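Note to self: the last two entries modelled the partners one at a time, which told us nothing about the interface. This time every component goes in together.
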Amino acid sequence: MSTEPEFQNKFLQEHGYKPYKCRVCGARFWSRIPRETCPDRPCSKYDFLMKDYPRVNYLTLEDARKKFIDYFVRNNHGYIDPYPVLARWRNDLYLTIASIVVFQPAVTEGIVDPPSNPLVIVQPCIRLEDIDNVGLTFGRHLTSFEMGGHHAFNKKDKHVYWVDETLNYAYEFFTREIGIDPDDLVFKESWWEGGGNAGPAYEVVVDGLEVATLVFMKYRIMDGKRELMPITVVDTGYGIERIAWFTQRLPTSYHTIYGVLIDRYKNILSIEEPPYDVLKKIAYSLSDKEIEGLDMLKHEVENLGMGEYYDQLVNAIRLYTLLDHMRTISLMLSDYIVPSNVGEGYLARLVIRRALKTLLQLGVEPSRLEEVFIKLFEEQADYWKDKYVYSKFAERADYISDVLRVETKRFLDVIDRGFRIVRKMLKKKKKLDLDTLIEIYDSHGIPPEIVASYASRLGVKLDVPPNFYSIVASRHGGSRALMKEKRIEVPGEIAEWARTFPETRLLFHEDPYMREFTARILGIKDNYVVLDQTAFYPRGGGQDYDRGVISIEGEEYSVEAVYKVGGTVVHKLDKNISSENEGKEVRAYIDWDRRYTLMKHHTATHIILSAARRVLGEHVWQAGAEKTIEKARLDITHYKQISVDEIRRIEEIANKIIQEHIDLKIHYLPKFEAEKKYGLKIYEGGAVIQPIIRIVEIPGYDAEACFGTHVANTSEVGAIKIINTEKIQDGVYRLEYIASTKLPPYINELESNIRKIAEALGLDPGNPVVSAQKKAVELSEQRKLISEYRNLVKKLIIKELENNLTPVCGTYAVVLEQNIKDKQLFREIIEMYALDKKYIVISYDEKLVEIATHPENCKTKGIDLTRVVSELRKHGAKGGGKRDHVTIRIENPEKHIAKIIELIKNQCRQTP
RNA sequence: GGGCCGGUAGCUCAGCCUGGAAGAGCGCUCGGUUGGCAUCCGAGAGGUCCCGGGUUCAAAUCCCGGCCGGUCCA
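The predicted structure of the combined assembly is written out below.
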């Protein structure tokens, strides 16, 4: 990799830096003073913690962020506001894991111009892959952090800057702005890969701490191979927290980030940290080690002769974990992630459950869990008030607290259920082996630490291997990445063919009310046709395609389906069409009834979404939609059951929007301008990666990037009726509704159903409800009556049977004919006799004989009913059972009763 | 999206491995007991064993497919 020209830089050489090779890790790095090893861990410790930097001033997180932004703005970088941590603008990623993510893929692929070039942004990011290490590594690992990025996008016709300028910025920033001596600054050669891109990189390291990574993204990875990109990107990541930590040299980065919040958390949780000097010494001493698990930590701390602080240290680590997780949770929820068991919702739940687990480990009683959890969040919201993007914690506290409440309850339910399972397993197996432990975690969600502490309360000691989670992970093997799926809509070979045509002019966008048009045929393949322009809407954005007729020189073809391939619209006809027709002019007519219904359903969907947001909250996000001719449906994210009352209010607001007679507005805006003006809500229907975005706006209510056709005024929707709601997955609810002229047939059907029900049940059609209630009472009375009759009949039958007993082997054979269809009645009688040692009961209906007796009789009298069965098999019977209970399938059972009694008698003679 | 676990009375579940009579506790109804109660005693009602198919004389139980729920996961 050192062959990359980016490593043959001028800048470093001119500033007195020379290349060295690390004796330990072998990496090449640039330094002004000779060094044996690179100053990056694990080749080196956190030496900065113990050093003095006379020119370095103490910076808070706020200061560090501001300094970074100011410096680059001063150097002609346009400032960009941070984006949410939930990557709504991307279809291939859930969370914002780096500042460059904001500009991928639209800008990095050259589809859209950056909002500014070069630019600077400080982006809150979330990375969960090291979640296990949070706390344990004293602040090296965070689940959320601020990445300062300055980015330049170099195109063929516009070169902005590349390696030397980037190194210069880093050099100037760290030496002048932060005050680090150039001799302490080291640039380590590295390689970066991610998100389908790759390139050479420099890590900027100061005395053990990596403070920035400078990546020169020049490759795209296609099918496993690297190819040069048409656009090269300067992708830098400055660790804002780390820079602040560096200037403060506190024992951990948590102390820098969370300041007074640490003491407030300690109060709430009633725990103590070890003294600062002890903490600092431990953090420093362990900084070149990979601590995996508490056992290893204990060992290392004892080696340092600080074993007495171990317990405090463990509490402190849990404290840091909570501080970290609470900020991440707050970030996720304030960007309106709805916890779920799939997708980004799962990631939120994962962090929430880790935090809750940590609280339990700190000894918080389950009954206080919710209260403490909410309190910890409220403290974060208060601490971060008025600070950068974090001010939204407090602004959206209602939603966040409510979600935390719901999730805590769910977690406790899971734990509760888990404990029952643990009890059951312990009863069965007496001890829990690893497989069981994995099942309890993997299938039931109870972390082994909690199982262990519960088991020890039951007096069972069990060992959890320190690498438990990696064992689980390895068993999962090839489970695939958490990635949003990409939908593929078009039939294969047709798509390839369609791509050879220019973009179709979309008449339905120019005039959604156009019902007929003239166009020229550009291409024909079997029964597929491409025109130069069309008013036929292709399926997309959840709106179904149009149908209609194309007429070519008097011959009519019916349009069955319409698809969109890139910018080309493909019409599928009912029959093949001769390719001689290419270039000819056609007259086309769309099925207007169908289209108009689809338009109304589409606008209705935007209306419903807006109404749902008003009723349920701003977290409501479209998770899917479909508009067909029959009905429309919208899937929305929400974290608890939607009540009947809420549905009614959504319907009310939706119909109010219709009544308000609002003109829809269509705008075409550049991507970044649209995002700035309307927010990322425009991507409700999915991310749109285009330079110009079509926005459909219902002023005052909704604005979305949308390709579909809409009515001109909300009043055209007429009316909306929600006809069905269901939970389609955790955190996602489906609303189905109809609009306009679809309402009367729906109501007619309801009415006719009521009529039919009334008729079938003989209800008063004028007042079916009261009449049905009466019927229900009647029914339950009749049931009671039947039960009384059954008891009566039972007595009669028994009396009858008592008069017809046949002595067999010291018992009496009771022969019971099942002559009415009342299974329960006969079951009761059979049971009564079979549980009495004095009887053998032989019961039969038209094809089945059942014989039963008390099991005792088999032992004392040697009765074995299965032998009766094997005997009868010779006469064509089938059946089997246990010694005291058999069933026999035989034709005309009543003819065999005497024989059966005979066979039983024979048995007890054989064994007296 | 994939793996794993589950679906039996109103609720919580047992039974399933090894096919053969659908169960317990709580709750409910009725009766008795008690000054009172999350009292005690007794009786009773309540079931599409998730759905569909297969194997079998016989399926809650075994096999296949589906639906629903839970849970874990780059």
